[in-house]
Write a structure and sequence with these properties.
The structure is a homotetramer. By secondary structure, chain A is α/β, with parallel strands linked by helices. In chain A, about 15% of the residues lie in helices and about 20% in strands. In chain A, helix 4 packs parallel to helix 5.
Chain lengths: ~290, ~290, ~290, ~290
């Protein structure tokens, strides 16, 4: 196992009480350059549709559920309904739902970014530190598609390295700049492939993100189970999220984006992610947009 | 009560099976003009923070809740937690939460936009027609702030008219164009004022929106209870949403936007709303952004 | 379809506002005779175990669920947990869960027992009339096992008649008396058999219950889908529950009871059902006991 | 603080894997004597009504909630409802709800009864050891009312001792026997009194229960916050539940029982508690009955 003091980190870089992590890298300049990417207004979603299971059903309904990610129940509003409404129950980190990981999601040796003891960061009533509150004004920055396997899929069990990310940049003709959101495509549907030997991010790839000061990671490649690199299992979460303070868009779907980039002939765009203003949580569903 | 055949309507305008309503007005041209509004990248949220009530608490905890809008429970992930997660329970149309009303939310004489019998539109398992699925790619268009009471609040019980909206446009130096999102500010906090005589939208104001082909309505003024116009109670929902097919951002908070517009010296901006991809519901929490 | 005025009914028998239905038949005398059945204290559950689906799981967890009947999430109570707790989400009439149907569960032509318009009986906030509140002091009465297929199962699609119930009484050497709870065994697991042609109760059997003034029905045979008797589909719910006002223990499991009765050499016992004191609902999970 | 090795304990008494704790004391003989207590069939609930908060409400509804103990939402079953149903969300250890504490509820130094490491007892998917599964066949035993303050209430902050319990037995003319359930009345409504200096159980009282081999504790007096005995805070939970393995009926309501005992002229009865068959939880709502 890699020693903790050899791992890249941003603990202390923006102070001992910092809650924004790499969102600090999205400066006014970065934002100004980002909106310049939006020219036609063509818009693409980076989110999977939520797999919703209904919670009410007639007596002859099937009893199981394809997913328990999001449970939905239509509400009674009168014998003659005057309005329709639902109750929704969801787990904030479901592997079937595209969601933002807040910085306190990952615990390392009883601490969360940037070194807060977990009980100081939050409790049964929710998080005071490291929560989804940092997404309150949305995340608006430049986005880049890094397609690791254009028109195809990474091999099973592949460990993505910094060199892989460099190759994707070269193919796209883009250069990652401080404050960018990167959208990584490996051609895998994690939710559908859970029993297979998934490809995943290595520590080398996460170190690459650190060197390039990436602000946000989104992708269809995450931390593989079993790990692709036994010396640094869970590198994206345990290093990228917990040590770099880099928010992750987990379980993103870049397929439609890949098509749009090919059609537009460019791999950069305005990235806008504005989840509901849940304020004391460690995660929240999100539908990030790429606007061309 | 105003007769149904005298009310403005878009039923049939885009076909008998239309699901997009006034989102049809957001054409490629509209979107291209919209992104041109984003110049500095300054971003403002139009959403209230969600009032979250924790669902687990020690024996000495208070028993009540300020709100039942959003219920949150931190989840156990092991005797030494390795990751934090939550279960969230929410009602899609809570008056304490900024949310998008989908077209099937409002039922008129057993029908939803554009005249579908309710049982055809959906059932216990959710909506097949008129659902939140139309927000899948987000809503990206030009936004305008129409401030009805700059620096102040509308009088209690005031019925907002088309003339009021015209005055706001004049003050802002803007002209509403087909496909715009309008953000209306009246200076009221509906959630905090529920027992008071609220100001609200009249049928005249909703007819104005129809004439101007507004695509999306967001505001801190909605349908007052008791109604401001007994001949057309609930005009925004019963006419704007159900007959015009105009999605509503209910319980928006335009206070910060008003400040930003004053500072920027302009009242138009890029409006981006991308709620989670809940697909079979009548509403969904949303955090719309104004990007300057 | 059988005409409504030919159907057995208790509407009006105990007044227009009655909420207890056939529980009125459990008089002091009935209860005194019932407790005399409890001699050894041997106790048997008539409930299926609840099929619980966990709502939190690690990244490698399976995504589906065997059932959405009862959803359970362990709660975080601190970095070092000092107490364990759960959040439970359940649907009150799940076909996988043994539950009591309250009288307002079944709606007939917009009315619930004994003829109340649905909107008078309840609303979005729950039931004022016909709710689970009638189970507040539990249901304590004599129970009888009527085994329709000792050691075996009824044929698929069999329509249970009054003659079938008479035969079961004869085999058991028991006579149904006013106020009794009957526990019917047909040897079917409804939850596991949902796609098969289930046996079910006919109108004739429900009329038999009416003639015998049965107070409570529990059983592994219910209303079959498709119906066994097209002239009176859903007889147990639409006539037994809605017209007789006879509470149903839906999806009971009498297998262990059948064994105990054989061993004890008697088919009568003290029946005790005391669900949680949910007060404004149309149903509630219950674990009825047979005490010998 | 009292040293752990001076505290009464049943760890090891019924083996290292025991899950039943003091329910082991309810032998066939105990049960036979218990049912002999049931003579008239008069039945009294020992449960508070559940305080239910509706989760759907019209636009003019109040936004708060008296309690978040049990959340209920009526379900949509069609434009003309054919059946009524609800979704219920509850926390298993709400201080507003009468519930059974299973043995694994209380964690002592990372262990649960009888000395299992917490991670062996359960995980995010629920409990394998020490769960509510032990209540599957109900709890049927003799019950005794021990009224600590007949017709009145204990003084605020009073620490209940073994001598107090002896006095209550003397007044009632009863003697506690191995396997009994005791129902303790102190005249306090914990749920309504949460900010006051509550009376509570001392270690001395819990040691008394141990000496008398009480099988089940139910009462309106529990563990006070702040503790009545700083040397042994939370004695009922930390010693009675965790070390003795004695299931607790938390937040019981013995007021109606006290009246019934006075009227019946006896303070012993058949105690029956049969919660829903939730199988992997640390607690479950229950409506225990006293049957005379």
């Amino acid at each position: 196992m890699t020693e903790a003091d050899e791992l890249p980190t941003n603990w202390g870089r923006w102070g001992a009480d910092d809650e924004r992590g790499t969102l600090n890298l999205i400066t006014d300049d970065v934002r100004a350059r980002a909106v310049a990417e939006a020219r036609s207004g063509r818009t693409v979603s980076l989110s999977r549709p939520m797999p919703t299971t209904p919670l009410v059903a007639g007596p002859a309904a099937a009893s199981g559920a394809a997913s328990t990610a999001v449970l939905q129940a239509g509400l009674y509003t009168g014998a003659s309904p005057f309005a329709m409404a639902e109750l929704v129950v969801l787990m904030t980190h479901s592997p079937d739902v595209t969601h933002f990981d807040a910085l306190a999601h990952q615990v390392i040796d009883g601490q969360v970014y940037p070194g807060k003891p977990l009980d100081e960061a939050g409790g049964p009533a929710g998080f005071r530190h490291g929560s989804t509150a940092i997404f309150a004004q949305g995340v608006v920055t430049r986005g880049l598609l890094l397609d690791l396997a254009p028109g195809a899929a990474l091999p099973a069990g592949h460990g993505v390295t910094g060199a892989d990310l460099d190759s994707a940049c070269d193919r796209a003709g883009v250069e990652v700049r401080s404050g960018d959101a990167i959208v990584v495509r490996g051609g895998w549907d994690y939710a559908a492939s859970r029993d297979r030997h998934l490809p995943g991010m290595t520590l080398d790839a996460v170190s690459w993100m650190h060197r390039h000061d990436v602000a946000v990671y989104a992708g269809d490649i995450g931390d593989a189970h079993p790990p692709v690199d036994p010396r640094a299992p869970g590198a994206l979460h345990r290093v990228g999220l917990a040590r770099l303070g880099m928010p992750l868009v987990d379980v993103a779907d870049p397929e439609e984006l890949a098509t749009a980039c090919d059609e537009e002939g460019r791999y950069s765009f305005l990235f806008v992610a504005a989840p509901p203003r849940l304020g004391a949580a460690s995660g929240v569903p999100v539908n990030p947009l790429a606007i061309f």
